[in-house]
Amino acid sequence: MEEKQAGKASVRFKNPPLVLSAASVVGKKEGEGPLGQYFDKIEMDSMLGKKNWEEAESELQTRAAKLAIEKSGLNKEDIRYYFGGDLLAQLIATSFGSMDLEFPMFGIYGACSTMGEAMGLGAMTVDGGFADHVLVTASSHFASAEKQFRYPLEYGNQRPYSATWTVTGCGAVILSKNDGKDAGTGKRPLAKVAGMTTGKIVDMQFKDSMNMGAAMAMAALDTIVTNFRDLDVNEAYYDKIITGDLGQVGKRLLLDYLYRAGYDIESRYMDCGIEIFDEMTQDTHAGGSGCGCSASVLCGYILPKIRDGIWKRVLFMPTGALLSTVSYNEGKSVPGIAHGVILEHADAKESASERQ
Predict the structure, then answer these.
(1) How far is residue 333's CA from residue 120's CA, in Å, rounded to a whole number?
(2) CA 236 – CA 33 distance, rounded (Å)
(3) Which residues contact 260 (CB under 8 A, 6 or more apart)?
(4) Residue 19's beta-bridge partner residues?
(5) Is the pTM higher than 0.85?
(6) Is there a contact between 114 and 138 (Cβ–Cβ < 8 Å)?
(7) DSSP state, 237?
(8) What is the pLDDT of residue 97?
(9) How far separated are the first and last CA of the chain, in Å rounded?
(10) In this predicted structure, what is the pLDDT of residue 184?
(11) Do residues 20 and 174 touch, judged by C-beta distance below 8 A?
């Protein structure tokens, strides 16, 4: 049997699962940003017709999931498992949003790194033969996150320039077995999941909850360096290295410390939180954040570029700050984590799984 484990924390897939379809649903502010044209649906009503913010986020999940299934050409009955998560306590956006789908479900929490964690686990499930098709989602909502983690919107508190703006959005993908064709659907896959690097918790004893980028930057660095060492590659192996929501502050820290470690990734680096908003006109300070940030940018912007061959190999690495209102109010630090997923053009001749 071919060895799938690579190094300390990485996996190479022998038959890389396919990203069969993707769907992105975002709010009005996100639709007005630089990437607005790439999202499938822009919801002008932040309540999505519901009675409260939490129900609105659940509706984001429902709409994105149903659209991803529709775009895949599969029937609902073809989906064996569902991996999903959000930022809210006990994953209520996901659990209530997926209830009517009636899929066997794995609830995932990795803070804003959730899409990477869920895709990695979903890909392992498919590659291991435990499912032919799985659904993966991650969502966030500006108002539900502010209500839980910071202050009610009515309070109107001032935000420091290091703060990020939680994205109202959801991304959903269908991961399918790689049968050498098209997973039996006739659909051209968006990409294949060639491998993954699971991050570990990195605690720099950072205690500023309004500067998540700084709290997560070293976790991103750790996962990138681990990926390079596990696969015996360097930054040139990837067309793009994309973090989830480090924002302007975390970006500079990451690039500077990677350079000190001997890696210059600046020319191929991108951060979803920086790309989704226009810092000059949208008053989002350091950029975007939230589970829905990297998930919606992945589904609306990144995967189509891989499908079209503009980028042949991407290290997609959502980043997360592992705090809660309880831990923060008890004086605890804000640890970070980052999960890397290697995405390749579906017809790429060399993949991470084939590299010796």
Answers:
(1) 27
(2) 30
(3) none
(4) 175, 191
(5) yes
(6) yes
(7) G
(8) 87
(9) 15
(10) 55
(11) yes
What is the DSSP code string of 22-86? EEEEEEHHHHTSTTGGG-SEEES-TTTTSSSHHHHHHHHHHHHHHHHHHHHT--GGG--EEEEE-
Distance CA 201, CA 211 (A): 17
Can you tell me the distance from the alpha carbon of 285 to that of 101, in angstroms, rounded to the nearest whole number?
37
Domains and CATH numbers, the chain: 5-176 (3.40.47.40), 191-344 (3.40.47.40)
Query: Minimal CA–CA distance to 22: which of 43, 11, 38?
Result: 38
Q: What is the DSSP letter of 202?
A: B
Q: Residue 319's closest CA among 263, 259, 269, 261?
A: 269
Cα–Cα distance measured from residue 192 to residue 69, given in angstroms and rounded to the nearest whole number: 17
- HSE-up (13 A, CA, CB side) for residue 37: 1
Tokens for 146? 């502010």
CA distances from 157 to 47, 146, 151, 171 (A): 21, 11, 7, 29
Neighbouring C-beta atoms of residue 158, cutoff 10 Å: 5
Name the DSSP letter for residue 188.
P
Quote the Cα angle for 155-57-136, to 5°. Answer: 140
Task: Quote the CA–CA distance of 158 and 4 in Å, as a whole number.
Answer: 49
How far apart CA 262 and CA 125 sit, in angstroms, is 35
Is residue 210 over pLDDT 90?
no
pLDDT (average), residues 57-63: 95
Question: What does the alpha-carbon distance between residue 328 and residue 342 come to, in Å, rounded to a whole number?
Answer: 33
Q: Which residues contact 284 (CB under 8 A, 6 or more apart)?
A: 164, 165, 277
